[in-house]
Amino acid sequence: MTTTILNKLNGVDVDQLVGTINAIKDNPEIARFNFRAHNEWVDGGHSRTEIQGFYGATSEDISRLEPFVLEGDEPPVLLGENHGPNAVEVILHALASCLAVGFIYNAAAQGITVECLEFDIEGELDLHGFLGLSEDVRPGYDNIEIKYRVKADAPREKLVELCNYVQKTSPVLDMLRNPLPVSVSLVD
Amino acid sequence: MTTTILNKLNGVDVDQLVGTINAIKDNPEIARFNFRAHNEWVDGGHSRTEIQGFYGATSEDISRLEPFVLEGDEPPVLLGENHGPNAVEVILHALASCLAVGFIYNAAAQGITVECLEFDIEGELDLHGFLGLSEDVRPGYDNIEIKYRVKADAPREKLVELCNYVQKTSPVLDMLRNPLPVSVSLVD
Predict the structure, then answer these.
(1) Rounded to whole angstroms, how far apart are CA atoms B39 and B45?
(2) Which of left, alpha, beta for B32 (phi over 0: left; psi -120 to 50: alpha)?
(3) How many Cβ atoms from other residues are within 10 Å of residue B134's Cβ?
(4) Who has the most CB within 10 Å: A96, B146, B155, B184?
(5) Which residues, in sequence order, are bridge partners of residue A51?
(6) Region A78-93 average pLDDT
(7) In angstroms, what separates the C-alpha of A1 from chain B's closest C-alpha?
(8) Among chain B residues, CA nearest to A81
């Protein structure tokens, strides 16, 4: 008889996490990922994005049988019809969910049990930039402020330290805090 | 009898667009927006974001009767269960939907009728950064590549010019290409 005990903490398979890290140390190629999205404009401010396949861990992922469908739109005050959150609101979601994953995975790796974790996040934006009314105002947020609450079996000091580490390694936070090359081309 | 003819192009109310721009010229305060999101961790890589209210155009918006609910998760190869796209995939959606809005609104303002508009977008990421295995590898994408296709009643030259203008004024593109201050604090 074989008994398998899953070593899970915070819903994270810690053995798989350690296994992945070791596999990457043996073969750095495993760490290379290519993510993709396809967006089609619907009407007015409304567009729709499909996200399904990606390349990673040396092969094309086939775990998603259907694409995720995300609606983007503006509220009426910004000339839309609320078919979905707008693009800058989606940025807040991306950032929060990135920090959540980072916090939970790293807590699991350190043996910290998390009971609850939540984020309140906001961004200030001045429309002068988007509307081309001022060269001095950036189109994006002036700043983003994140407040998080966590209950876990570790002293506050340890949680702050973990939060600082998560900030250093968060993909989305990195892309916001630091410049990222983005190329845009019109295909015939 | 009063007859109202809506001046719509690409689904955009051009009169409202011009009216908004003029209102902001008269009162710059109208341009100030504050967007928000609340995220709660569910389990493992899975978290859930609610987006509803925001402040803008000098008042609190009440147009959304229910919050938008966005799921974030990782695929199994990244220790999740595919309850939603992951955070870096969501960034691609935010960027594409931002460019779509910018392109459509500005086309409408210039009297260009758009028949279709779509984006293919991808990003390359090396997990060494997220996993803390290398200080030399950034956690986020190395780069993002966007290809777009558009059919519209304007010469290609004009569409390329429009695309360049949209890049200059896109809030999400600005936040990715240029550094953004993000503050993170643990609330008791």
Answers:
(1) 13
(2) beta
(3) 14
(4) A96
(5) A68
(6) 98
(7) 27
(8) B63
Please answer whether residues A93 and B39 qualify as being in contact, where contact means their C-beta atoms are separated by less than 8 angstroms: yes
Could you give the CA distance from residue A152 to residue A147 in angstroms, rounded to a whole number? 16
Mark B37-70 as b/e (b = at least 16 C-beta within 10 Å).
Answer: bbbebbebbbbbbbbbebebbeeebeeeeeebeb
At B23, list the tokens: 């209102």
Whether the pLDDT of residue A158 is over 70: the answer is: yes
CB contact at 8 A, B10 and B101: no
From chain A, pick out residues whose CB is under 8 angstroms from the CB of B53: none
Using CA atoms, how far residue A79 sits from A74, A142, B8, B102, in Å, is 6, 22, 11, 12
Q: Indicate the residue type of A81.
A: E
Does the predicted model carry a pTM greater than 0.90? yes
Among A64, A125, A133, the residue with its CB nearest the CB of B75 is A64
- The residue in chain A having the minimum alpha-carbon distance to the alpha carbon of residue B118 is A40
Burial A7-18 (b: 16+ CB within 10 A, else e): eebbbbbbebbe
C-alpha A7/C-alpha B143 separation (Å) is 35
DSSP 3-state assignment of B91? helix
**What pLDDT digit, counting tens, does each position of B168-184 carry?**
999 999 999 999 999 99
Task: Please judge whether B90 and A85 are an interchain contact, meaning their C-beta atoms are less than 8 angstroms apart.
Answer: no
Give the largest Cα separation in chain B, rounded. 72
Query: Using CB atoms, which residue from A101, A128, A145 is nearest to B87?
Result: A101
Q: Which chain B residues have a beta carbon less than 8 Å from that of A114?
A: 41
Strand partners, B118: A40, B149
Distance CA B109, CA B51 (A): 29
pLDDT digits (tens, 9 = 90+) for B99-138: 999 999 999 999 999 999 999 999 999 999 999 999 999 9
Using alpha carbons, list the distances in angstroms from residue A134 to A184, B123, B162: 23, 31, 18
Within 8 A of B187 by CB-CB distance, chain A residues are 147-149
Cβ <8 Å between B38 and A101: no
Say yes or no to pLDDT of A83 above 90: yes
Interface A-B: count of C-beta contacts within 8 A: 459
